[in-house]
Amino acid sequence: MSDFKIKKRLILAGLALLLVIDGGLVYHNSRLAVEDENPDVALKARARRVALVKADVERANRIKARLPEVQKYFDQFESTLPPAGKGYSVVSQEFDEIAKDTHVQVQDRKFRQKEISGRNVDEVEVEALLDGDYAGIVRFLNRLQRSKNTYIVDSLGLDSISGVGTANQAPTGTVRVSLHLRSYFRKT
Fold first, then answer.
1. 104, part of any domain
2. Cα gap 122→86, rounded to integer Å
3. Does a structural domain hold residue 56?
4. Shared domain check, 148 and 118
5. Of 26, 60, 80, which residue sits at a domain end?
């Protein structure tokens, strides 16, 4: 029984010693954090911060001065977009022409239009399934990239092919890719 009491007192003494050491370290750490600051170092640090703020203000002024030029480029870009009334047929016709040239089949074409606030432009999301060999799909995407129309490819996904060919087998080398892209039409 006395052995337990001795162990208990030793543990309590050890904990008390740890608390005293911890308190001393806290005091020492606080003294290090509050060292007297050299006025020259503080002045240089403040001058450096002021110089950075001035540089940011100058950069912002340069950006502000270029805004009319950038706005002009946006307006030129918008004028090159197909009008909304003809946009869907332009995109469909271009898809069909490219697909014919690259030996790719375009299936399940879906369009979703949404208005972009503050601009004279509508964004159109296009989803389609492409069936063909790998080289043909790559050529199809390259032709889209080089098109005079604007296309932004958001995602490509490899899909499974079923029900094609004999006994639900796909022709050898055929790949099905789901394509999700965006295009833009000018409001009329």
1. yes
2. 13
3. yes
4. yes
5. 80
Per the model's pLDDT, the better-predicted residue between 10 and 31 turns out to be 10
- Rounded to two decimals, the pTM is 0.60
Closest CA to 137 of 154, 109, 157, 108: 157
Region 67-73: mean pLDDT is 91
Rounded to whole angstroms, the Cα distance separating 65 from 37 reads 41
Is 16 a member of any domain?
Answer: no
CA distance 108 to 95: 12
Strand partners, 113: 124
Q: CA-CA distance, 93 to 131, in Å (whole number)?
A: 17
| Rounded distance between C-alpha atoms, residue 122 and residue 111, angstroms | 12
Residue 65, both tokens: 């001065």
- Helices vs. strands in the chain: H and E counts, helices first: 4, 4
Domain containing 116 — which CATH number?
A: 3.30.70.60
Q: Does 176 share its domain with 99?
A: yes
Return the bridge partners of 130, or none. 106, 177
Counted residue by residue, the chain has a size of: 188
